[in-house]
Amino acid sequence: MAEAHQAVAFQFTITPEGIDLHLSYQALSQIYLSGLRSWKKRISRIKNRIIKGVYPASPSSWLFVVIAILATMYMQSDPSMGLIAKIREHLPLRPLTIVTVQNCKINRNSIDIIYLFYLFTYSVVSWKICVSDWWEEYVYLRSRSPIMVNSNYYGMDFLYVTPTSTQAARAGNTITALFLYRRKVNREELNPSRIPGTVIPLCAAQCERMFNTTRTPGEETDVLQHWQDSEFVAVYHRGRYFRLWVYRAGRLLSPREIQYQIQRILDDPSPPSPGEDKLGALTAGNRTPWAQMRKQFFSSGVNKRSLDCIEKAAFFVTLDDQEEGMMGENPSVNLDRYAKSLLHGKCYDRWFDKSFSVVVYKNGKNGLNAEHSWADAPIVAHLWEVSFTLATDAFHLGYTADGNCKGEIEHFLPPPQRLSWDIPLQVQMQVSESLAVAQALADDVDCHVFPFREFGKGRIKKMKLSPDSFVQLALQLAYYRDRGTFCLTYEASMTRLFREGRTETVRSSSNESCAFVLALEAGEDREHCHKLLRKAAEKHQNLYRLAMTGSGIDRHLFCLYVVSKYLGVESPFLKEVLSEPWRLSTSQTPVQQMELFDLVNHPEFISLGGGFGPVADDGYGVSYIIMGEEMINFHVSCKHSCTETVRAKQPNLTTQS
């Protein structure tokens, strides 16, 4: 909002008497409040840098150390109790020989120190230099095919509960919760995610581009653009785009005020301008045509101003006219439709380039669609699911008895701003072409969502098995029963133990897993199958540990391939290995720290998790979330065009072990 007022904050005219200066005090106030918010964020980050600098100790413990050192210096005592003198006696200190160009002499101790420092530095930053940047560039941003279905993924609402059936109210609480999360990100107040059962933190660098971020199309490669702040969201409803300010006079609007503003959009009867209603299809189709249209028709004038409002928004919101969720006479089919709606919608009513788009349905159900290049699913899951947004919406913000948001409404709120467009015929033709490409892709995708309630991690852990390993082995068994063979299997493992780490591949199909599946299918005795199951699970756990600690093989092979391309060296081995299809692509959505509510006492507030499209045309995409002790939710996707993976051949995930 401050940017909009800067142009009119200072105005002057030249008169015969001199310069007549006019000040807009309202505009100056907005600029002041915007600057104040910025400084609050900076001060908060400085404080957090101090706390992080002494982690895992506390500032008070370091104060004790400083006092102890000063006391020792004042008393002129030896805190080592003679140990330092003994060391000096047996290991006299000698200056290290300095490396010079003239004599090129290097002390052996220096070499050891330099080598160890190199190893340490490499272990800390290698995932940034050798993997993360290249992974983002070559795997995501250089892809010219549609990111809808192929790259973007989705997250769902609660399975059994919809906190309110009022669309505007659900949007009001959801938007408020997301901005509260952004405030925590900006002030670095989020509790760090940790390896379960330890105090070892995971890198949170991916959170930095969660908000105010968009993927900008390019003819050869896309670019991620991130802005430091944004005080508004972009909203789509019935073919119209709006800018909705969520800050006024430096304060975040109350949920009730945001609901009021959303309702004004829902009640707006104005029709879309020519070419506006399906404009979002440009983000759903192939990337190069979108880049060309953007450069030619959206780089100046009214189109640029409106596109900037979308791209610089904190995030994108779609007010959908459909009703979704597990409802009606056939809840299973409706869940599948719900998944497809979040994955691709109508192919034009989402802005797939935004870091994430929130979808709020007519019956109050919600969900989101996330772009993949800026972060991986666990980051978005922590934002969205029971870790924050959904829990904040239902348990901390809450609703009145009649389903409205809580809070007061300030009178004279300016209405949401309708975005204006001048869409020429050439752009409208490209919109139609992009929509045709996206619609064909969307129609080909089949999604199936099902909550598995027979047993959960409670029973699995009683068998002293890893729940993730157990599910992965069940998927191996299901695929074998479905196709009569084994396939290359991809499971995503996080590498956030390293700075700016992303993912590594766990190759879940191993000799041990195949031996277990074959023995079970051959009807071998129960004891032998249990032994093979345990051996396969231990193998999988070891593979996961190796991947998580940087000892996997796939990202290293990927980096070697990139280097070979830079050097112009052809490697038949790398070319063959990296071109093998992942016919079974899997990912677990982690249930992270849940400080906001107790799932045991509120079992009805179970999250459905999320899913993604198939990686291979003749394969499956499988996402799962292990909820509580008694449920595992699965999201399975494939393509109708493959006769081997159509709905009639759904795999059986139930094991007899």
UniProtKB/TrEMBL annotation:
Pathway: Lipid metabolism; fatty acid beta-oxidation. It is a multi-pass membrane protein. Residues 131-645 form the Choline/carnitine acyltransferase domain. It comes from the Eukaryota. It catalyses: (R)-carnitine + hexadecanoyl-CoA = O-hexadecanoyl-(R)-carnitine + CoA. GO terms for molecular function: carnitine O-palmitoyltransferase activity. Residues 1-47 form the Carnitine O-palmitoyltransferase N-terminal domain. It is found in: Mitochondrion outer membrane. The active site is at H372 (proton acceptor). Keywords: Acyltransferase, Fatty acid metabolism, Lipid metabolism, Membrane, Mitochondrion, Transferase, Transmembrane, Transmembrane helix, Transport. The chain crosses the membrane at residues 50-75. The keyword Transmembrane applies. One of its GO terms (cellular component) is mitochondrial outer membrane. Its EC number is 2.3.1.21. GO terms for biological process: carnitine metabolic process; fatty acid beta-oxidation; long-chain fatty acid transport. InterPro entries: Carn_acyl_trans, CAT-like_dom_sf, Cho/carn_acyl_trans, Cho/carn_acyl_trans_2, CPT_N. Belongs to the carnitine/choline acetyltransferase family. This is carnitine O-palmitoyltransferase. It comes from Cyprinus carpio.
